[in-house]
Amino acid sequence: MSALTEEEQLDNLKSFGKKYGSAIISGILIALIAFFGWQYWQKKTLAENQVRTAKVQQLMDQAQGAESNPDALSNLYASADKITKDAPDSVQAIQTELMLAKVAYDKADYAAAEKSLKKVENSKLNDDGLLQLVKLRLAYAQLAQNKYDDALKTLALVADPAFKATAEEARGDIYVAKKDIASAKKAYQSAWDDLAKRKQERQILQIKLESVGVLVDDPEIERPIIDTQVDKS
């Protein structure tokens, strides 16, 4: 049990927000989800049909550096709009919405990111794993807009055990933003316990736990033994 007073814990939360606020609000975690989710989906669809993804690849190329160029952004949105309207539930449209969500998130336009992610969430996408990733990204977009209740409702739909720790950590981030220390502790601890069972570590989660007054032991993880002997011959 933590010996920290409520006031000390609140001070820790403020300090944590200053040091790691970008990890909570701007979403380092969501950036990782975006990267791995996008790479997975891109490889899968390219293997199935390169022709169908050609237009999306062009959009991805356009998106590079478009953030600081109004004309490039305008052209990007026009091309994306055509793809999504022509076939809203196609692979191309889903890829396009994911790309638009990432562009919006990079511009700190979290409302636009939420809109694109909801379109993917409500599409006829037949890929449970990717949908779980989308919901996690959506929850962070909602958190960035201070839509705490909406974000918690979104996370409640992340039911796949493989994403339990990530969802619990995200839930803890929301409670930190709400300054609900007790609930944040429970969520972070649940995430940590799940990772410990799988013998996985997540340093940023350990830092988050410490920021709310909870100290945890490093998980027991078998690491490869590296031979450091020097050849004296």
TrEMBL record:
Alphabetized InterPro entries for the sequence: SecYEG/CpoB_TPR, TPR-like_helical_dom_sf, YfgM
Molecular functions (GO terms): protein-containing complex binding
Homology family: Belongs to the YfgM family.
CC terms in the record's Gene Ontology section: plasma membrane
Protein name (record): Ancillary SecYEG translocon subunit
Domain Ancillary SecYEG translocon subunit/Cell division coordinator CpoB TPR: 14-213
Locations listed in the record: Cell membrane
Organism field: Acinetobacter ursingii ANC 3649
Source taxon at top rank: Bacteria
Positions in coiled-coil regions: none
One of the Pfam families matching this protein, by short name: TPR_21
Stretches that traverse the bilayer: 20-41
Keyword Transport: no
Topology class, membrane: Single-pass type II membrane protein
Keyword list, A-Z: Cell membrane, Chaperone, Membrane, Transmembrane, Transmembrane helix
